[in-house]
UniProtKB/TrEMBL annotation, chains A, B:
Pathway: Amine and polyamine biosynthesis; putrescine biosynthesis via L-ornithine pathway; putrescine from L-ornithine: step 1/1. It comes from Microbaculum marinisediminis. It catalyses: L-ornithine + H(+) = putrescine + CO2. Gene3D superfamilies: Alanine racemase, Lyase, Ornithine Decarboxylase, Chain A, domain 1. GO terms for cellular component: cytoplasm. PANTHER family: ARGININE/DIAMINOPIMELATE/ORNITHINE DECARBOXYLASE, ORNITHINE DECARBOXYLASE 1-RELATED. Residues 26-259 form the Orn/DAP/Arg decarboxylase 2 N-terminal domain. The modification N6-(pyridoxal phosphate)lysine is found at K48. Its cofactor is pyridoxal 5'-phosphate. This is ornithine decarboxylase.
Length: 377, 377
């Protein structure tokens, strides 16, 4: 998954310190795969996955819309050339003054999951469209979602009716099947719920039009994942089954699925050591860890593919850890990672499929280490 | 624990957005408490706990030395006025070129826990003093340490002998009893081990002189913790018991114990909502969370005291979460936090004892949110 362009860049530029390199060609291919797989859905790229200006500009040019989590992300999307009508303020937790500012900037599509958030939007962004996020079970996802976002479907019905009565357009529902979702059927269950919300509100005289299918489209790490096309088919089938020939407007919010596979982190082996003469595993310490951008190794949730310059020979299990003086800064320990027995201090290592949720996750200066450098090529 | 100075600062300055305010008077008191409790130990402040220049300058002026985790922290300590002989490079995981640079800057005291690290120091910082970190069990600590740092005591003996034979001064041993250690007896067990290492090497003709007692001194969060004076007594007793009248030179590395209680984070309630009509708990969303500086709520390890403007009346359990679109950004859910039933959206909340391990832990820009602002007064 390290493209030739990334290899050449690293070989020629030899950047000092850990860094992420993102290949825009892969982002373009991914965008095109999404449009082919779901031709009737609008794509709202989840900016939080990687807000690099080059990525946003490319996607804006390709026609993408943008799902944003904060005012800063809205400003980044605007700066990349997206008109305000291509931006949704997709965070269900917003300060009223931030909603007002987004409204001033022209944003008219907002996420909610509570009465209280509807009230803020009614005051600060009157006439805007809202979609209400419903809770789903997240079954089958590698990075399961908690109950933090969304509300029970029965409550979503009341929240949307409340919006309708408050001078806000009750546009539809959203859900998120869980990040890195490998079960294409997960959307089926969520769409059944969405259709119920549509029907109940129709009976009350409120016509919903929008289903936000969320993200969750996976990146290939160590295991194969279904193709984007197969997700598209499953989703289209489920939409037809639950909405018949009155298909709603749909949007998708790929983040990881758009950029995860487009990036590679270059890191250096700082130390290889054992804890005692009998220690069966080596500890391999890198110059990047949990606080330098690899936060998604939390609970060893995501297991990135790793390439070394000594691949092909014998391997042995290693505990992989970061460079900080924090004992929580360990990447893989519960399930040690097999790495070449010939690995040496000073070797460069490539951590693949790291284009999403790395740069912005990096800490400001924990232990004095600089945040992750990024190059978008 | 919110001092009058912090209250006045917040009332007069009314800073926008979440921020940390650190009261230097409390840092000064803490420093003095450490020197009184352990008058024969040198204090090496763990810069990683909070590297704010004002804190480093104050401590340098008071006579403190500095435990650093990286070149950047060494440079910060030097800039604060500490001479290089008051700085230890306490990370056991260092690039050889960083060791060389530290040596150029005058640093002559280094941590090791492996043969490989000794070799780097022998090449890049010849003649320096090293201490070898030994593994301890961390029993009784709220933030237990993994096996990431240190090696078995038997191996530490070999590592120090290897240093001695490589042109490096085998100075002694270090250990870390675990952060937020509430059992004053934890140092007793570690010192017994240290004394064994001293004796074994003495038999081989190598005289160790230094015991680095590490950190682990707790901050008072919700539960009472032993006083610094009682730690001092326990440590002095254990030293006398295990080293008799040939007491080694000792150093301590307080970080959390020096600055944790000196800081308060001001945050704002962004949303209060329930997930369904029957939901027994409220979800309270703040404008700071796990990625904005409160990383130590990971696994709900540290439970900060929280003050609201509505304290004193009825309380009810809340799930406390941060503002990002990340479902892992939840502070307290397993054990909900009791907060006033009258709490309202827009209320200011004070999160106390947050002076350590907050600002530098904050992510660069996750979800577009700015890192934690800090004011040192």
């Amino acid at each position: 998954m390290t493209t030739d362009r990334i290899r050449s860049f690293l070989a020629e530029r030899r950047p000092e310190g850990p860094c992420l390199v993102v290949d825009l060609d892969v982002v373009r291919e991914n965008y095109n795969a999404f449009t082919r797989a779901l031709p009737d859905s609008r794509i709202f790229y989840a900016v939080k996955a990687n807000p690099a200006p080059e990525i946003l500009s490319l996607l804006a040019e390709l026609g993408s819309s943008f799902d944003t989590a904060s005012l800063t992300e809205i400003e980044l999307a605007l700066a990349a050339g997206a008109a305000a009508d291509r931006i949704s303020y997709g965070n269900t937790i917003k300060k009223e003054r931030d909603i007002a500012r987004a409204y001033e900037l022209g944003v008219r599509l907002f996420a909610v999951d509570s009465f209280e958030e509807v009230d803020k939007i009614a005051r600060a962004a009157p006439g805007s469209r809202v979609f209400c996020r419903v809770l789903t079970d997240g079954e089958g996802a590698e990075w399961p979602l908690s109950r933090k976002f969304g509300c029970a479907p029965e409550m979503a019905i009341e929240v949307l009716e409340h919006a309708h009565r408050s001078g806000v357009v009750a546009a539809g529902v959203s859900f998120h099947v869980g990040s890195q979702q490998r079960d294409t059927g997960a959307w089926e269950r969520a769409l059944a719920t969405a259709a119920t919300v549509f029907r109940t509100l129709a009976e009350r005289g409120i016509t919903l039009t929008l289903v936000n299918l969320g993200g969750g489209f996976p990146t290939r790490y160590l295991r194969d994942v279904p193709t984007v096309a197969s997700y598209g088919e499953s989703i289209f089938d489920a939409l037809s089954r639950h909405f018949g020939n009155r298909l709603p407007e749909t949007i998708i919010e790929p983040g990881r699925g758009m950029v995860g596979g487009a990036g590679v982190i270059k890191t250096e082996v700082v130390l290889i050591a054992r804890k005692s003469a009998e220690d069966p595993v080596r500890w391999v310490y890198l110059d990047i860890g949990k606080f330098g951008g690899l936060a998604e190794t939390m609970d060893e949730a995501i297991r990135y593919p790793i390439r070394t310059q000594r691949d092909g020979g014998e391997v042995a299990p290693c505990i992989l850890a970061g460079p900080t003086c924090d004992s929580a800064d360990v990447l893989y320990e519960r399930e040690p990672y097999p790495l070449p027995t010939g690995l040496e201090i000073g070797d460069e290592i490539l951590i693949e499929a790291t284009g999403a949720y790395t740069t912005t996750y990096a800490s400001v200066a924990f232990n004095g280490f600089a945040p992750l450098q990024a190059y978008v090529i």
